[in-house]
Amino acid sequence: MDATVRAQEEGDTSRSLYKHMLPFIFSTLSSCLLLLRCAPIALNTSQPIGMASYGSASWVTLALLLFITLAATANGDELSASYYEKTCPNVQHVVRSVMASSVAAQPRMAPAVLRLFFHDCFINGCDASVLLDATPFSPSEKDVKPNASLTGYTVIDDIKSALEHDCPATVSCADVIALASRDAVALLGGPTWSVPLSRKDSRFAANPESTKKGLPSPHDNLGELVAMFSRLNLDARDMTALSGADTVGMADCMHYSDRVYGADRDEEIDPYFAQTMKQSCQGPSEAENMCYTLRTFEPSFTTGHGAQLRGKPASKHCGCPYYRNLIARRGLLTSYQTLYGGGGPQDNLVEMYSADGEAFARDFAKTMVKMGNVPPPMGMPVEVRLKCSTANY
Length: 393
Description:
Layout: H1 3-38, H2 49-73, H3 91-105, H4 109-121, H5 153-166, H6 173-187, E1 201-202, H7 208-214, H8 222-230, H9 236-243, E2 249-252, H10 253-262, H11 271-278, E3 289-292, H12 321-327, H13 334-337, H14 344-355, H15 357-372, E4 382-383
Antiparallel strand pairs: 1-4, 2-3
Helix pairs in contact: 1-2, 3-5, 3-6, 4-6, 9-14, 9-15, 10-11, 12-14, 14-15
């Protein structure tokens, strides 16, 4: 057998063994730390002091060695679309199947999962930290105000449960979100792409203040958006392409009331659009919801307790109507409309996407991969979680 092939197969085997030993390693480490706390009790027995000190030092050494072993693996794998080819060859099929059945039962789950991916990657990279529940020792990103309306967690749990049945302790929750968001876009009639894999899950959520400051606001202006995206190594073109995904999901009245009530000039907002939106948002203090989907780029409106937008998806011949709405001053949120109207290269991008659906689809897919490649900070404790809402042990 060729030495290179043999080395590669040995490496694959080692990684597979390590993944399946993760629960054991964490359990052993926890036991070691528990014994370490108990070791000084030996000083109160008939055991010689020297032996007690030696035993305590031994447990310290063992615990540190195990910790170093875990830490050394963090951020160690390069992303690759074929990462699970041998360890979980069915991963793509499982994710796609669960997503298809979930979206068929509840269509809103497609935009919900896509939004989870954005909110995860913007805070400490794509590490599934947004899925972690709060503990007595750590807050949850779920409870921070910008994330309070996030849903779709049950879909990710269902996918993870199916994968744990087929490939225990192998596929990370971060990879599940990345794959599920790709399939969500495809199910809604958008583009598809190859997803690089091998992300790891963080053991801790980001602190609430970092989470709040790290997410774009519906009220941000162009300069604020550019600065925020640049922190993820995403440029203005990436930002403008990703904005097309914001035509899916739900928008609270409180997030667009400033736009429909605060803009007092026709140059800022189309008067008919503003008047129609006021019917579903009675004032700045209202909390009604407005629902819209990836296919709702050319809006028709219904009044009452909400506004439902219906329309056609982007096409290679007609371009993306979402961007045409920006040109027509019909952007729902301030952070949407700020992408157009200032002149220069930024306006050129919007005009290109409004006319060329292929360019939009190509750039959107490329930028989703780019955003999905944002890693957690170096040195952050990571793992492959067995359950997406809790760290292992």
